[in-house]
Amino acid sequence: MRFFWIVTNRIVLILLILALEVVSVYSQELIFPIVDTGQEHCYGDGQSIPCPQAGEDYYGQDAQHQGNAFSYQDNGDGTVSDRVTGLMWVKARGEKMTWDDAVAGASACRVGGYSDWRMPTIKELYSLINFNGRSGRTAGDSLPYLDAAVFDFAYGEGGTGIGNRLIDCQDWSSTTYVSATMDGNPTAFGVNFADGRIKGYGKSSRRSNRKTSTHYVRYVRGNPSYGKNDLNDNGDGTVIDRATDLTWDQDDSGKGMDWKTALAWVAAKNDEKYKGHSDWRLPNAKEMQSLVDYNRSPDTTQSAAIDPLFRCTSITNEGGNVDFPFFWTSTTHLEGGAVYIAFGRALGFMQTPPDSGNYQLMDVHGAGAQRSDPKSGDPSLYPRGRGPQGDVIRIDNFVRCVRGGTDKVVSGQGPDRSARYEPRSAGNGEPSGLGANQGEGKSNTRQMGQGRHHPPAEAIQACSGHSEGDTVNFTTPRGDTLSCHCVEMNGVLFAKPDNGPSGP
What pTM did the predictor assign? Predict the structure, then answer.
């Protein structure tokens, strides 16, 4: 009898340990949660359209997938907290300054009484972009790609002179380009919240007798892990980023295609249950940009700006050189075209010298830039590119599929993705649910939005093809099998141990 109780107790103990292991995995918070783009409507090649159904043209675009909605809190002390990312931002617009002065100014910043402000990385800064923005001819018919009800914002002065355009209101990031842009300019990436793009901006310019460039800066603090990938090879042709909970195709499409074809190409992959899954999608702009490795470039590493875990097809660019593709996203620029991310050189045709009529093809914005292309048409109609820097137009861009994360498929038009905004918080100015920092200069790497937890990929996969309430077996990362049933939370269906907790 004693032996029986000893064996029984050990079995109970083992099961308890396994259950705790599952709970522990479920309760891991993301260090790099992707904020949704805010795109609310569906689009064809041009104007908005009723959101298509499966099997119809343009199905699977940005507005048909819903992620983490914007959620800001004005702390009433000159700071704004982002509940999703765990980042706190300076609310004010500030003044234009050189990149060096912007870097130096972070340590002197005391907004809100904090002393641990820093220059944002390009991935931190891009988390703020809102693709409900649009770029018009005047401020009156434009809308910032930033929530101007929360953050102070100002357009450029307008006019016709260089440096005096409406869109000349770019923000610096701390992320420098490992190569150079234009004709050898040392470069830092920035976001233009007037036209919704990431570009590399020369710290100074040979084209203007080494005149030092000036842009805005908006300092940030908190969650120092934001924007840092945690990539793991799943061994099945996919790579999971545990920092974002996104699972990526290790391969790309191997060929370019227009935007409508790109959406259909992904839908066809789902029909064939590509690599064992039928929930692939064309990534939105922020998801695609999250994958850029800004430590790599064709000129410095002879590779695409992506981790070597991924295979990236090489191309011959417009100048006859080995390069890497632009990759489509599911996101539309409201003034026309669809967003792409350049994993190779962001080329453009520049007049050299200026106004000479002699065009030279060069890397004008850097690998890792975010620009846009027409969704269809003939690239040969743009022999000198488009825009003031002659951005190369390809139209037939590449595709890399993604699945997972906090994505929820939505039907119909205009899902509710409006920014949630509260005037101020109580207490010490830190948003609730973020794990407030105690004292100046201290940060909590586990700051996250609203206590959001995520089940492991194995738990989600166990319920693939099942319905809520179905009984399934779940294999833990250690290889142990537990009896579970499928439950749905936050749009995710996953396996929960029969005797486990009610949440993920």
Answer: 0.79
What single string gives the DSSP state of each residue in 50-119? Answer: PPPPTTSTTTT-GGGEE-B--EEEE-SSSEEEETTT--EEE-S----B-HHHHHHHHTT--GGG-S--BP
Instruction: Provide the pLDDT for residue 430.
Output: 43
CA distance 2 to 8: 10
Locate the domains of the chain by residue range. 2-28+453-497, 42-50+66-225+406-422, 231-277+293-403
The string of DSSP codes covering 249-295 is: ESS--SS-B-HHHHHHHHHHHHHTTGGG-S--B---HHHHHTT--TT
Residue range 249-297, pLDDT digits in tens? 999 999 999 999 999 999 999 999 999 999 999 999 999 999 999 999 9
pLDDT digits (tens, 9 = 90+) for 440-449: 333 333 233 3
Side by side, which strands form the sheet with 492-497? 471-475, 481-489, 492-497
DSSP symbol at 28 = P
Antiparallel, parallel or unpaired: β 71-74 and 420-422: parallel
What b/e readout covers 140-166, taking b as 16+ CB neighbours within 10 angstroms? eebbbbbbeebbebebbeeeeeeeebb
Task: Give the Å distances, CA to CA, from 239 to 159, 196, 275, 327, 502.
Answer: 47, 28, 12, 17, 29
Q: Bigger pLDDT: 382 or 406?
A: 382
Is the alpha carbon torsion for 69, 130, 45, 405 positive or negative? negative
Which amino acid is residue 169, in one-letter code? Answer: C
Can you list the alpha helix ranges (DSSP code H) found in 393-493?
457-462
Listed residue (192, 190, 196) closest to 134, CA to CA: 196
